[in-house]
Structure formats: structure tokens, C-alpha cells
Amino acid sequence: MQVENLGKDVASGESTLTILDEISFTVGAGESVAIVGASGSGKSTLLGLLAGLDLPSRGRVRLAGQELGILDEDGRAALRGRELGFVFQSFHLLPALTALENAMLPLELLGGAEPRAAAEAMLARVGLAGRLGHYPKHLSGGEQQRVALARAFAVHPRLLLADEPTGNLDAATGRQVIDLMFAMNAEQGTTLILVTHDENLARRCGRTLPLVAGRLVQD
User: Fold this and answer.
1) Per residue in 154-165, pLDDT tens?
2) pLDDT in tens, 181-219
3) The pLDDT value given to residue 128
4) What is the per-residue DSSP string for the chain?
5) Assuming Cys at both sites, which of 19, 118, 157, 191 could form a disulfide with 85, CB separation 3.0 to 4.6 Å?
């Protein structure tokens, strides 16, 4: 992934507020990178731009050789489906779907062969072979995040984006989930970019990108 002179402005009353400015970095295949900074520094906004969920005011993001800004919404969605996995602080599981159905969803959207078998294998990998038919409301926070990991890794993404993946978990459960995430990341050779306030989690990554008031202060 290549990020070049990225900036994001938003309207604030009659003025313009700059959220991000002059952000440039490259992340190589298989790297692990932590984006850190105080609340309001622009971390989650940056992650959304990297995923093509939002478009920058200036600059560009290249993923898998494609510039996200020149793709339409459907094109960006298709690229995300092929190349990206997501893990969120709030899990983002669909409440009306079982653990198995949640894990199958990205595989079905891609039209992959044997989505059920692949999802079952991923849920077994995260220790949930006995919870396939459970709905999110019947799973603990740690179990829901494990389902989210299984869903994210089911498509063998080139890039995994994680936004405060332990933010809603207690310390012990958070450590277990992070150990699992890094183990699966190593198994698949995935590139990992995560946003975190957790210094211990940031130290697990190969590099740290500190954001201060929307600017990258060092790399």
C-alpha cells in the first residue's frame, strides 16, 4: 500500500477543518504497522481512507496497484471484497446471522467455492467449532471478536485493517484475541495495519506511525 500526500478536510460552519494533512508512507507486503495517537488525531479517519470507505480531499491511496480515488463506489467495494479484511472495536457482526453465517458472508459475496466449509474451518481455527449456530447476542465479547477474525481472514486478504480491536475487551481476553490475530496474520502472510491506544499492542507491530493533530510526526 502506498499513501501519498494524503489530506482530508471537512466543512465546519463557515470554515474548513483539516483532519489530516500531508500523510505519506508505504507499507510492504507482510508488514505490521500500528497507527497511534491521541483521540482526535485522525487515526480512524486515516483508516477509513486506506479502506476506500471515504475519499481524501487531496493525495492518493494505492491498494494492490490501484488508486482508490479514481474508482467509483462499486469499484472500491469490489476491491475491498477481494483484498481487505476488517476487524472493528465493536465487532460489527450482523445480529440476525449466526456465527457461521457471519463468517460465510464475505465468501458468499465473492462467490467462492464451498463457503460453508471454509467458514467452518476458520471458526474452528479461532476455537469456535462448537459455537457455529450461536447468534452474536449469545456470544461473549471475546467470542464475537473471534468470529470477526474468522470472517476477516476467511477470504485470505492481502491487507487486514483493525480499528481498536481490543477496545471493548478486558485485558486478558484482549491478549488472547491479539495473540490469535498475529498468529493468523503470520500464517497467511497478511499485511496488517491497526489503530490502537494500547502501547503493548503497538509494540507487537514492526513499525509505528504516530499521528499528532492530523500529521505524521515520524515513521
Assistant:
1) 989 999 999 988
2) 899 888 999 999 999 988 888 999 999 999 999 999 875
3) 94
4) -EEEEEEEEEEETTEEEEEEEEEEEE--TT-EEEEE--TTSSHHHHHHHHTTSS--SEEEEEETTEEGGGS-HHHHHHHHHHHEEEEETT----TTS-HHHHHHHHHHHHT-SSHHHHHHHHHHHTT-GGGTT--GGGS-HHHHHHHHHHHHHTT--SEEEEESTTTTS-HHHHHHHHHHHHHHHHHHT-EEEEE-S-HHHHHHSSEEEEEETTEE---
5) 157
